[in-house]
Amino acid sequence: MENQRNIIVAIVLSALVLFGWPVLAERFFPQPKPVEQAAPPVNGSGTGAMAGAPAAAAPAKLKDRATVLAATQRLPIETPALKGSINLTGAQLDDLVLVRHRETVKKDSAPVRLLSPGGAEGSYFARFGWSGDGVALPGGDSVWTADVAKLTPETPVTLSWDNQQGQLFTIKVSVDQYYLFSVEQRVANRGAGAVAVANYGLVSREKQKVASGSSLIPNKDVDSWTLHIGPIGQFDDAVNYEVDYSTLDEAGAKGARFGANTGWLGFGETYWLTALVPAKGGVAESGFRHSPTSYQADFGSKPVVVAPGKVVSAQSQFFAGAKEINVLDRYEEGGIPLFGKSIDWGWFEVLEKPIFRLLDWLFKAVGNFGFAIILLTFIVRGLMFPVAQRQFASMAAMRAVQPKMKAIQERFKDDKQRQQQEIMKLYQTEKINPLAGCLPIFLQIPVFYGLYKVLMVTIEMRHAPFIGWIKDLSAPDPLTPVNLFGLLDFTPPSFIALGILPILLGITMYLQFKLNPAPMDPAQQQVFAIMPWIMMFMMAPFASGLQLYWTVSNLLTIAQQKWLYSRHPALKEPVKT
Predict the structure, then answer these.
(1) Is 344 exposed, middle or buried (CB count within 10 Å of its CB: 0-12, 13-18, 19+)?
(2) Measured between alpha carbons, how far is 447 from 533 in angstroms, rounded to an integer?
(3) Which of 101, 198, 352, 417 is the most exposed place for a label (fewest CB within 10 A)?
(4) Each residue's pLDDT tens digit, 471-526
(5) Nearest partner of 64 among 122, 6, 8, judged by Cα
(6) CA distance 200 to 284
(7) How far apart are CA 519 and CA 526, in angstroms?
(8) What is d(CA 92, CA 356) in angstroms, rounded to the nearest whole number?
């Protein structure tokens, strides 16, 4: 009975740790907050845009994407990871698909589209330009010329625009094998007088499509306490997860502005990211803002004076792609600060990343993430085996002193405080730790939560198949008897969509509990009788990879219990009183 009570105490305490930690972390380890800064007028037109970056204009009526793409002159983009085009009107990166990632698990599924042109439904684009006074500047409707026919990792492109007043503006764009564009902006002053300019970069996305959390995969990217979706950036040596879309809506015209110490900023979803990376030390201010139709991330540099006959340049970068862990870490090592934290690991990153690294290593060894999870389960249970042996030894000791405990309870049944004192003395005399039985559960809960987070946030686990009907280990088990295992064409609600794995989880948990001696308390007997079936329903909406881990863990626990009970048969005997 005492051991069963310890299990309940362990579960309650673990829940307090997992759910209470974010509250304590927010209080004692706050994220950097945005600062308000004045918005200088730009472009000489009195627009008053912040930090030199104009608000990206949006048409009143959105058009079909194919129609918008066909109506504009474009330069193709082609890399091993990306395909799309640059809009030569406005020099905008506004057409990009991720060729290695599909929208669904179906074989004929289209690749994930990240960027779409302004004026189209789901518009999402980046632009680099200049602000200044007393000089004609390129804008969203300026038509640029390109010096090559296609942008590839081997062939960068230089876009040019002449204002016919003595200034030549160029943008050199190069792209690597993955998702990073390098942008060099130049202004050559061939006029008779000096001009003052400041470069900027912006990312704009349509507001309507992100109102529910995502413009890419509906109902998948929903901001919660475990996962940040929306505006994100590295400011003042920390990644800011505090600003979200609702924050911008509430902030009004001022938006959320940050200081000059900006490493990168943009918009993140569960698996995808766009991020502006300004040159170090070249930012006057940066931040996020919104209009009735769009959200925008932008940065602006300090103004520089370009004397006649001189050229000024500014370098920046733009990431647009999938949040692949090894790729992000490579960019971080290359100088983009804290870029790996664009994945919202949370406060348990120290545990979650090693679990992913081990899973990834196992995957490379066996070629299947499902089998990698099974091997991970064997590793965890193997490491826990000595602890389980100590747990059984503790259970044996607890059962041996049950008659003495029963006598103490009868003797001091009217004095609960004295009863507890005498029981504690008994523990000390017999050298028993009543919490020893909780240790395996405590040790496994962090692993379980770490695997849960890995399945939730890593693109590597997205659409990772196992065998048979399990095509995506990051999604719930799709095969359920509620719709006759797919024969009926409807998707049942998640709370009754019991897949095969959740059912197996409930059965194995039931068998595991049946191996244990029945608790003496009838109320505890009832709790442990229904708990497997409650957990079966609770786990049904979770990722099938998590269900697979727990089911295999239950099977290993059953085998381990049978072996240990064979060595300690007295544990199966009724307690003598």
Answers:
(1) buried
(2) 23
(3) 417
(4) 999 988 888 877 776 667 767 776 677 889 999 999 998 888 887 665 555 666 67
(5) 122
(6) 10
(7) 9
(8) 36
Q: Which residues pair with 184 in a beta bridge?
A: 172, 315
Number of Cβ within 10 Å of residue 494's Cβ equals: 12
Q: Identify whether the C-beta of residue 82 lies closer than 8 Å to the C-beta of residue 321.
A: yes
Helices and strands of the chain, counted as H and E runs = 13, 19
Side-chain half-sphere exposure of 292, counting CA atoms within 13 A: 3
Number of Cβ within a 10 Å radius of residue 432? 16
Residue 330 — left, alpha, or beta (φ > 0 → left; ψ -120 to 50 → alpha)? alpha
Q: Token pair for residue 125?
A: 């684009």
**Residue 437 CB coordination number (10 Å):** 22
Residue 204 identity (one-letter amino acid): S
Structure token pair of residue 507:
């059965």
Given a cut of 50, the residues of the chain with pLDDT beneath it are: 1-4, 10, 15, 18-19, 21-51, 211-223
* Rounded distance between C-alpha atoms, residue 130 and residue 44, angstroms: 12
72 token code pair: 């504009």
Contact criterion met (CB below 8 Å) for 285 and 37: yes
Helix (H) or strand (E) holding 130: strand 124-133
**Cβ atoms 255, 244 nearer than 8 A:** no
The pLDDT assigned to 94 comes to 94
Task: Give the separation between CA 328 and CA 246, rounded to whole angstroms.
Answer: 27
pLDDT of the residue at 184: 97
pTM of this structure:
0.81
Q: Are 395 and 571 in contact (CB under 8 A)?
A: yes
CA distance 329 to 336: 9
Q: From CA 179, how far away is CA 159, in angstroms rounded? A: 20
- Kindly report, residue by residue over 215-238, the tens digit of the pLDDT: 444 334 444 567 888 999 999 889
Lookup: tokens for 563: 């072996």
Calpha distance 459→442 (Å, rounded)? 28
Contact 267, 232 (CB under 8 A): yes
Tell me the DSSP string of 198-241.
EEEEEEEEEHHHHTTS-SSSTTT---BTTB--EEEEEETTEEE-
Q: In this predicted structure, what is the pLDDT of residue 277?
A: 96
Q: At what angle do helices 416-430 and 402-411 cross, to 10 degrees?
A: 160
Question: Taking the CA atoms of the chain, what radius of gyration do you get in angstroms?
Answer: 30
CA–CA gap between residue 152 and residue 338 (Å, rounded): 27
Q: How far is CA 310 from the centre of its chain?
A: 45
* Cα–Cα distance list, 280 to 51, 173, 299, 314 (Å): 16, 18, 12, 10
Length of the chain: 577
The DSSP-derived string for 340-392 is GGGS--GGGHHHHHHHHHHHHHHHHHHS-HHHHHHHHHHHHHHHHHHHHHHHH
Q: How far apart are CA 337 and CA 323, in angstroms?
A: 15
Q: What is the pLDDT of residue 224?
A: 55
What one-letter code names the amino acid at 171? I
**Residue matched to tokens 């991020």:** 275
Residue with tokens 């912040």: 50
Two structure tokens written together for 380: 């965890």
